[in-house]
């Protein structure tokens, strides 16, 4: 009698707690997608283990309201040959897989299902094949970079559907075909950045690209195969700041209207076949970098804008048919640093006046200059191959030697000079493992690599962009200009207060760098391509602890009054590290296919495959001494896995086996259930005509046994209340948070198990029914117990 009163009271509490409790566990579809990734990609973070990505903070994963909204996995050394089942992360907003050179494969069309994506970064991986048309369905995107992969084929016109897009970077691939417009890129009215450097795009530049609704600031199509004119429509886009059309096959005259683009700072038109007059740039007051080398302009005197552009730092006009003399006041432009006018027909006397700009380098080699009149000996000047240097380099005259690039040496003031064991000395004199890589700039407002002030600005700007992260210092070094006029630097980022960064920090650093939400004076946008990081700090805290205390052992016996029973066992420690992919043996996907032959791969969320052999060994050939219960379904055995974990094995007997499809469904269902108040599935065996489910083993048996005094455990009232709340939480999870929802239908004291700390766990889903299952509404095992109508 007493027993029934107690159970009644527990029921009331269960009901109340059910109403109150609020929990936030990972959505099961998201969990499935991440688990599928785990089985197809290598080198995912070691803490991608345990039952819940959102609650356990898997590295690189961020959740909002139990949905995965951000996956930032830059630079983790991940490899895999498929894009993975990412498309089911339908709430994803940020996806960054950059700098994982081991990631290959094509982008599947299903990427179009990530409807909430705002940032897509796949920089510096090894993806190949065409960019899927479905990319046009990602309507929320504001930033895409697929830079530095091996994408081929056309730019899909559907990209024009991305009306919110601001940053579009497809540079450094092998894309070909025309620039798509109408439909296409002309409808990207919010785009600020078109970065298409280093591809094989062909055809002419469509005038629609510069329609009156465009707000572009950076247009970079350098190093492609574009032909035809620069369309005069470019004059519509007054916002333009950086224009790179160099290294194509453009011809025709440069449209005069270019001169009306007053915001341009960097203009690259070099290495084309442009004709006519050297363009008039007088209308560009902030222009600092000009390169129009190697075009076929008409012969002309030095244009007047040479002396009027007060912001000019860099003028590169190699091989542009300039004739006559350079006006003396050109050399006193206040910011001038680098002038390359080699291979022209400049003649007469070179008068540099009294400029004593020590930062100025002037290359006038291969011209027709006959005389020099200067007192400005501080300028670095080369007149090699001019009549004024008849003896060439051997003449010993300083300005008759070839121009050498400036360089600088930075001395640190550390007392240490080197560090032991691969560590690197930081600018602040500590030894650690920096995160390193190359910064590859699409454009810059200077070319003088010898000027350390740019370099300092770069370091300071990056350091402040990393504010809030444990970054001690930033070092940029080894500047160089590549064959396509892109400046590169080597970058080192040093950790502060420790020897190395953890994966999360590397992912964030990479994301910040490539997202470029910060300003870099004098530098244009860039790509960050890392050198793979040597030494992630092992961020998995507490993993060791669990191996001592974790193995929670218990007993569980079913079979009291009712028909069905079950016993379930426990193992409570999450197997974080020991789960060290026990090779293919633990790949149920492979095995399943070979059994089923119909390709229906089960979506297993952490459940392991066990061989019949293994389970037979640990139960002493399913001996009676290991049997801890029996019922209509079959018997339940206790066993200890080689890892030390104790499990309860539920073995179906002949006659109560399910069809393969039903068995798969049941495993899929059970393996989704992860909650501390619900008994969880450890794995299964489906081999040699056997169907077995392996559960965690629960030490203290059923609640029924404790209440009846049978187990020797005395439950005080506060313990009973806790048991009721625990059970309620478990049920709440099953009813409301599991997807699909599960109605237990047979909750009773014998289906509530107690672990060694008297935490209650709901057990026996042998009678579970899926909610919302259209059609027949299946029952996962033999139908027995309390039916509820739903
Ligand atoms: C996207 O663009 C293509 C062609 O530009 C068009 O046919 C298609 O209907 C658009 N799709 C959506 C979903 O708007
Ligand atoms: C260059 O353009 C400016 C206007 O920006 C104009 O005043 C000047 O006359 C032009 N020079 C030549 C040589 O056409
Ligand atoms: C101009 O062309 C020559 C010969 O192809 C090349 O060596 C030089 O680098 C080019 N100059 C520029 C500034 O691109
Ligand atoms: C990585 O470091 C950050 C601090 O920068 C810390 O918040 C985070 O917990 C660490 N991650 C792991 C898995 O230890």
UniProtKB/TrEMBL annotation:
Segments passing through the bilayer: 551-573
Subcellular localization: Membrane
InterPro entries referenced in this protein's UniProt entry, alphabetically: Kinase-like_dom_sf, Leu-rich_rpt, LRR_dom_sf, LRR_N_plant-typ, Prot_kinase_dom, Protein_kinase_ATP_BS, Ser-Thr/Tyr_kinase_cat_dom, Ser/Thr_kinase_AS
Residues annotated as signal peptide: none
SMART domains: S_TKc
Molecular function GO terms recorded: ATP binding; protein serine/threonine kinase activity
Source domain of life: Eukaryota
Domain Protein kinase: 622-790
Top-rank EC class of the record's enzyme: transferase
Entries under Pfam families matching the protein: LRR_1, LRR_8, LRRNT_2, PK_Tyr_Ser-Thr
E.C. no: 2.7.11.1
Any one annotated GO CC term: membrane
Parts forming coiled coils: none
Keywords (A to Z) from UniProt: ATP-binding, Glycoprotein, Kinase, Leucine-rich repeat, Membrane, Nucleotide-binding, Receptor, Repeat, Serine/threonine-protein kinase, Signal, Transferase, Transmembrane, Transmembrane helix
Residues that hold ATP according to the record: 650
Family named by the database record: Belongs to the protein kinase superfamily. Ser/Thr protein kinase family.
PANTHER family registered for this protein in UniProt: LEUCINE-RICH REPEAT PROTEIN KINASE FAMILY PROTEIN, RECEPTOR-LIKE PROTEIN 55
Protein name as annotated: non-specific serine/threonine protein kinase
Species the sequence originates in: Lithospermum erythrorhizon
């Amino acid at each position: 009698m007493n027993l029934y009163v107690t159970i009644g009271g527990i029921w009331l509490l269960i009901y109340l707690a059910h109403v109150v409790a609020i929990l936030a566990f990972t959505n099961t579809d998201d969990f499935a997608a991440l688990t599928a990734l785990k089985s197809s990609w290598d080198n995912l973070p070691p803490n991608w283990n345990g039952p819940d990505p959102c609650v356990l903070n898997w590295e690189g994963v961020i959740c909002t309201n139990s949905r995965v909204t951000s996956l930032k996995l830059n630079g983790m050394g991940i490899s895999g040959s498929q894009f993975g089942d990412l498309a089911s992360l339908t709430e994803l907003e940020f996806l960054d897989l950059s700098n994982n050179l081991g990631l290959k494969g094509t982008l599947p069309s299903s990427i179009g299902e990530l409807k909430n994506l705002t940032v897509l970064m796949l920089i510096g991986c090894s993806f190949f094949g065409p960019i899927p048309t479905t990319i046009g369905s990602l309507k929320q995107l504001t930033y895409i970079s697929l830079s530095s992969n091996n994408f081929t084929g056309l730019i899909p016109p559907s990209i024009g559907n991305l009306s919110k897009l601001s940053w579009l970077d497809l540079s450094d691939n092998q894309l070909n075909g025309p620039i798509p417009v109408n439909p296409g890129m002309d409808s990207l009215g919010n785009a600020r950045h078109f970065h298409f450097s280093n591809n094989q795009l062909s055809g002419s530049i469509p005038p629609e690209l510069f329609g009156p609704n465009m707000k572009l600031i950076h247009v970079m199509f350098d190093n492609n195969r574009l032909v035809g004119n620069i369309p005069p429509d470019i004059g519509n886009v007054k916002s333009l700041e950086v224009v790179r059309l160099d290294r194509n096959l453009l011809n025709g005259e440069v449209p005069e209207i270019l001169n009306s683009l007053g915001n341009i700072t960097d203009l690259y038109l070099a290495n084309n076949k442009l004709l006519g007059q050297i363009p008039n740039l007088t209308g560009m007051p902030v222009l600092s970098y000009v390169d129009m080398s190697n075009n076929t302009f008409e012969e002309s005197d030095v244009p007047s804008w040479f002396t009027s552009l007060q912001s000019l730092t860099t003028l590169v006009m190699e091989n542009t048919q300039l004739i006559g003399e350079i006006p003396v006041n050109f050399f006193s432009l206040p910011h001038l640093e680098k002038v390359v006018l080699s291979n022209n027909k400049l003649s007469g006397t070179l008068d540099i006046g009294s400029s004593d700009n020590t930062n100025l380098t002037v290359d006038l080699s291969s011209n027709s200059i006959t005389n020099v009149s200067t007192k400005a000996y501080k300028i670095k000047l080369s007149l090699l191959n001019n009549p004024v240097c008849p003896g060439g380099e051997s003449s010993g005259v300083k300005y008759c030697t070839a121009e050498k690039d400036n360089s600088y040496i930075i001395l640190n003031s550390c007392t240490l000079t080197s560090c032991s064991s691969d560590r690197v000395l930081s600018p602040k004199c500590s030894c650690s493992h920096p995160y390193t890589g190359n910064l590859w700039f699409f454009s810059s407002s200077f070319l003088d690599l010898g000027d350390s002030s740019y370099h300092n600005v770069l370091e300071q700007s990056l350091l402040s962009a990393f504010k809030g992260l444990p970054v001690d210092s930033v070092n940029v070094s080894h500047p160089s200009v590549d064959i396509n006029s892109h400046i590169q630097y080597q970058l080192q980022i040093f950790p502060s207060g420790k020897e190395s960064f953890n994966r999360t920090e590397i992912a964030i650093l990479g994301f910040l760098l490539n997202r470029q939400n910060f300003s870099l004076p004098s530098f244009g946008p860039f790509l960050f391509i890392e050198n793979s990081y040597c030494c992630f700090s092992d961020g998995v805290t507490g993993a060791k602890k669990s191996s001592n205390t974790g193995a929670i052992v218990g007993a569980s016996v079913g079979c009291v009054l009712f028909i069905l029973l079950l016993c379930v066992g426990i193992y409570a420690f999450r197997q974080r590290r020991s789960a060290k992919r026990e090779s293919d043996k633990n790949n149920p996907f492979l095995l399943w296919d070979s059994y089923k032959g119909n390709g229906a791969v089960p979506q297993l969320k952490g459940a392991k495959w066990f061989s019949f052999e293994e389970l037979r060994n640990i139960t002493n050939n399913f001996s009676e001494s290991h049997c801890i219960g029996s019922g209509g379904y079959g018997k339940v055995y206790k066993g200890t896995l080689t890892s030390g974990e104790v499990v309860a094995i539920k073995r179906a007997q002949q006659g109560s086996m399910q069809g393969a499809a039903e068995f798969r469904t049941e495993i899929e269902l059970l393996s989704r259930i992860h909650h501390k108040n619900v008994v969880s599935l450890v794995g299964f065996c489906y081999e040699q005509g056997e169907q077995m489910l392996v559960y965690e083993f629960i030490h203290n048996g059923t609640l029924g046994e404790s209440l009846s005094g049978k187990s020797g455990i005395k439950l005080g009232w506060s313990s009973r209340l806790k048991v009721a709340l625990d059970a309620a939480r478990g049920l709440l999870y099953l009813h409301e948070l599991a997807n699909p929802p599960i109605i237990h239908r047979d909750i009773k004291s014998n289906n509530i198990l107690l672990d060694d700390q008297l935490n209650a766990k709901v057990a026996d889903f042998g009678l579970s029914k899926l909610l919302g299952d259209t059609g027949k509404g299946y029952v996962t095992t033999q139908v027995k117990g309390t039916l509820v109508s739903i």
